[in-house]
Each structure stands twice: as C-alpha cells, then as structure tokens.
From TrEMBL:
The lineage of its organism: Bacteria, Pseudomonadati, Pseudomonadota, Gammaproteobacteria, Oceanospirillales. SUPFAM superfamilies: MOP-like, P-loop containing nucleoside triphosphate hydrolases. This is Molybdenum ABC transporter ATP-binding protein. Residues 1-237 form the ABC transporter domain. Gene3D superfamilies: 2.40.50.100, P-loop containing nucleotide triphosphate hydrolases. InterPro entries: AAA+_ATPase (IPR003593), ABC_transporter-like_ATP-bd (IPR003439), ABC_transporter-like_CS (IPR017871), Mo/tungstate-bd_C_term_dom (IPR008995), ModC_ABC_ATP-bd (IPR011868), Molybdenum_import_ModC (IPR050334), Mop_domain (IPR004606), P-loop_NTPase (IPR027417). Keywords: ATP-binding, Cell inner membrane, Cell membrane, Membrane, Molybdenum, Nucleotide-binding, Translocase, Transport. One of its GO terms (molecular function) is ATP binding. It holds the Pfam family TOBE. Residues 296-361 form the Mop domain.
Length: 361
C-alpha cells in the first residue's frame, strides 16, 4: 500500500546498542512513541526527518523513497514535506508572532493543499498574540505559535518530539484538545514522542513501545495503555476509552456518551455533535466498586462489569481491569476495600463514577 503508509528499515549505531527498526505504519491519526529514556525515540524521529546522516536502511513514505542507503538516496529534510515540532518552540526571536507565521506560509510545502491561515490561528487560539514579540510569550503560547507555524508549512506528516514536556500541566491540558482537533480536522498524520502516559492516553490512536533501539510492542493505543502491566508507579493509573456522543442535555449540562454497550454521563461536550467519536480518559482512582447497583446516589454512572484481571499495587492498593465488553477500564481501590468486598477475577461488580470523573478529549 503506497498511500497513508510509512515504512522504514533503519540501522543506526548508538553508544551501547543499535537503533534497529523494521516497521510499517498506517498513517492515519496520531502514532505515539513511548519507551524509557535513551531507548531511541528521538533518534527514530530524527531518522524520519532526515536529520541523521549516519543511518543505513530505507524509508518510504506514501510511496516516496526518502532514504535508500544501498541506492545512495537520501532526501534532505526540506524535501520530505514534514513538520517537526521540538520540545522547545524554536521561534525566530527577531520576528513577532505574525512574522513567524508569515515566514512559514511563504515556505509552504507545494505538494500539499495550503491550510487556511485564519482557521489555524483560530484553532490554536493565538489570534490575540499576532503583534506580540516572541520574548513576551509564555511557554505555552510559544508552543501554540510553533505548532501553528508548522501547520502553515502544510506538512504531509507531523513529527512531534515531546512538544508539551516543558509546559506545566494546565498549559498541556489546554493545548492537547487543540492538537486532537487539528488532527481530526486537517487529517495530517502525526508521530508523537512522549514520556507521559497521560498525554498519550489523550492523544494517540496507535502506539509504538520501544526498548533499547527496538520496537517491543505496536498496536492500538488504548489496548496497550489499558493493560495492567503498563500501569507503573510513575504516572497515575488510568484508562483511555473510545466513545460515541449520543445526546446533549443543556438543562443539566450533561452529555450522554456510549462506551461499548454502556451509556454514560459526562460533563457537557457542546463542541462534539451527536455521532462524533471521542476519547475518554478515566483516572483509575475515580472509580468505585459496589456489589449491587446504586439505588439512590448522586453518582450518575453505575455499570455492570466483569473483573478481567487484577494486580497488587504496592501494599495498600489493588488495580483491577474491568471488562466493559470490547474495552477495559482500569480501577484502583484500597486493599481494605478489596478484602471487604471479597473480590476475585471473574466476578461481576458495578463500576461507579461521577460524570465529572470522565475527561473527554
Ligand atoms: N548523536 C549521537 N551519537 C551517538 N549516540 C547518541 C547520539 N544522540 C543520542 N545518542 C544516544 O543514543 C541513545 C538514544 O538516544 P535518544 O535521544 O534517541 O533516546 P530517547 O528515547 O529519545 O531518550 P529521551 O527519552 O531521554 O529523550 C541514547 O543512549 C543516547 O545517549
């Protein structure tokens, strides 16, 4: 398959190992790349971008050969039609925001339809910053401008190397929906390196997990992320679910969404019309378990689930993987609750969580 595919066979020596990869990715949506520090995530992105000259192998993107070391083909970065977003924004300090954006527009990829200037500015929420000089922007604002600038270049593939890592959590939370929306709307495929499970849960459709220069797992993000063994102690345990918006209730400010066969309430999502597919992130600590359905409670969501598997988390907590049908929900409870309810794998229980416990992106 030529279109929407990125195939690469790469060999790049590093100090203690070789980056050694042989992958074919279908380019739709957002690919997340995760793995421990130093495993080669940035090196992979740099190889794809044409920033690593010592690499051997082949890269074919949408049928175009970017690299074939045997044939002596090495397309320089500017001919690959990619956008590269770094951890730090790298704006031109001598130009204001408008100047930075216009610079990109003039150098737009001629092979790709140009995206509307005003629409990108609106999507990235930077309309009020156009006359500002770069030194008067916050870190989050700089990164928004950097992303807008890259989009104005009309890339056919967006490579992002921890673009949110230098920002505080509230800036990240405000930029992530923009990235998701941009991807949905402009349909530019994205390969996104991140250390943060929280980011990947919100953004990625597919995931590559790397270790020591190799891909050790590849698959649908929520499948890989929702596995109990991935719920280490470095991030808070969570689940990522796919859902469909069913209807809005403006009176109560709630939206009904469907996850597998279950109907759930979330806070109102006016920007997502009924029928839209959305990603839902649920922190494992938001979920309580009961043996009976809740009768009179302020908690809006209470659904029957099967305990698929469980895992101790330290001495005082237990993580449970709860089957919703197709998808799984990770729940964290105390060991005391676990013992009191006498839970074990295979049991049917009720998972209860507030509408506000669901974050929809
Ligand atoms: N130019 C280089 N020459 C040789 N080795 C390098 C070079 N750049 C990075 N390395 C080494 O290659 C390995 C992979 O580095 P890379 O930056 O790709 O990892 P990473 O997974 O992105 O790490 P992090 O998550 O910490 O950013 C590391 O051991 C690093 O020290």
């Amino acid at each position: 398959m030529d279109n929407n595919s990125l195939q690469f066979t790469l060999d790049l020596p590093r100090d203690h190992f070789h980056i050694s990869l042989d992958q074919s990715l279908t380019l739709n949506g957002i690919w997340g790349i995760m793995g421990s520090s130093g495993c080669g995530k940035t090196s992979l992105l740099r190889c794809l971008a044409g920033l690593e000259t010592g690499v051997q192998g082949r890269i074919i993107c949408n049928g175009r050969t970017w690299l074939d070391s045997e044939q002596g083909i090495f397309l320089p970065p500017e001919q690959r039609g990619i956008g590269y977003i770094f951890q730090e924004a790298r704006l031109f300090p001598h130009l204001n925001v408008m100047g930075n954006l216009q610079f990109a527009r003039k150098r737009a990829n001629p092979n790709q339809a140009a995206l509307s200037f005003s629409h990108i500015i609106q999507q990235m929420g930077i309309g009020h910053l156009l006359e500002r000089t770069v030194d008067k922007l916050s870190g989050g604002e700089k990164q928004r401008v950097a992303i807008a600038r890259t989009l104005l270049n009309a890339p056919s593939l967006l490579l992002m190397d921890e673009p949110l890592a230098s920002l505080d959590w509230s800036s990240r939370l405000s930029i992530m929906p923009c990235l998701k929306q941009i991807q949905r709307e402009f349909k530019i495929p994205v390969v996104f390196v991140s250390h943060s499970k929280e980011e990947v849960a919100r953004l990625a459709d597919n995931l590559l997990l790397m270790h020591q220069g190799q891909v050790i797992e590849k698959g649908i993000c929520r499948h890989l992320l929702n596995r109990l063994e991935e719920q280490d102690n470095s991030d808070q345990p969570l689940s990522a679910l796919d859902a469909t918006v069913l209807k809005h209730d403006p009176h109560y400010g709630l939206t009904t969404i469907k996850v597998d066969q279950h109907r759930l309430y979330a806070g109102q999502l006016n920007s997502h019309p009924p029928g839209t597919t959305v990603r839902v992130v649920v922190p494992a600590s938001e979920i309580s378990l009961t043996l009976e359905p809740l009768k009179a409670s302020s908690i809006q969501n209470c659904i029957p689930v099967h305990i698929a598997s469980l895992q101790e988390q330290g001495h005082h907590h237990v993580l449970l993987s709860l089957s919703l049908g197709e998808q799984e929900l990770i729940c964290q409870i105390t060991r005391k609750s676990f013992d009191t309810l006498k839970l074990s794998a295979g049991n049917t229980v009720f998972a209860c969580f507030k509408a506000s416990g669901l974050e929809v992106v």
